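Task 17 of the worksheet. Students: predict the tertiary structure of the chain below and write it out as structure tokens. Keep your answer in the requested format; marks are given for formatting as well as content.
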Amino acid sequence: MLPRVPVQPRHIEQYRGIADQEVLDEIRTLARSLKGARVVHVNSTAHGGGVAEMLYTLVPLMESVGLEAEWRLIQGDPDFFTITKLFHNALQGMDIPITDEMKMKYLEVNEENASRFEGEYDFVIVHDPQPCAMIAALEGTVYRKAKWIWRCHIDSTYAREDAWEFLKNYIDRYDAAVFTMKDYVKSPLAVPHMAFIMPSIDPLSAKNIIPEKRVQSDIARRYGVDENRPIMLQVSRFDPWKDPLGLVDCYREVKRKHPDVQLVYLASMADDDPEGWHYYQKTYEYSAGDPDIFLLSNQQGVGNVEVSAFQAMATVVLQKSLREGFGLTVTEAMWKRKPVVAGRVGGILLQVEDGVNGFLVDRIEEAAEKVCLLLESPDTARRMGDAGHEKVRRNFLCTRNLLDYLRLFRRLIS
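Model answer:
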């Protein structure tokens, strides 16, 4: 049996007064028609990254409206997760050939996990490439009676042809595929149903409730950050697509004009991302011992409360991404009324309206220029922060995410 991830209870009524009432009303109506439906989410990690964060809320919310929902994990050895990270990078456009040996290892681990798949469900939601091929090993079994949904969280717009075509063989077996944007569908798929669902944040999670000022101060002191000086913040994995070295260059450009600025980079070292430590080391070496650059992660005790505190203390939040499926950390910053300077890529375009709730940038110099503008104009920063908060409330809360899944379920059974 695949390991089950325990989740804390959530109730839809907790979001009354935060989410729009019409969203809550439609959730109630759809949930009545789906009462008792058995749902399982399958992914590769319970720690690190936006998928796990969303599932910790989405699964108990599904349960709270009458579905029988659970979350299961596939398992694999380090070689498997190295290969799936290479798949991930190739699907985002990196020039990495997918070899026969890589494919064989990938399929072998998917078959092993398929052999441990148990339980009868109405809906099986498989997240991202790691477990995608499990469906092939379950064809002709009782488990295939469920409606199988593949959910892609990455930006596959520029995917290498060999990586996309290999994975497409398995995606086409699903009953539905879910992407964040239409542009992410590299070539037409044979699945009967397509859906486009934007990710979301939970406004009631520890990561999105701003700690008291006293707690913020304690956290800043613990990590040696001066809360009374400007803070540039990025929250993301140490990953080539997050452009950590470009972020350091941006900070250095800003520091020429604002010598008191600090850079805080918060990361979560995920179980399914063996590349993280390599890029942490590269960023550490590139920082050249600058005492105003802080590279922090869950390995140093940075958890949800610490992330929320630093987002609240930040003067400007950056997401210097070169590819980005969505960027939940952008949404988190906007919810906390912070102006965002972000790469003009992928799902960020759904979130940041250039000049309204933040700035979209293409170059390091442009990013530094916008950061300086926000440091020098608190009124602009405040106006953008307020606009960002309202955009999140209307578009990117977990209640809307739940509603989108319920709508898809109804389509699949009707």
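Marker's comment: The two ends are 30 Å apart (CA to CA). The first strand starts at residue 38 and ends at 43.
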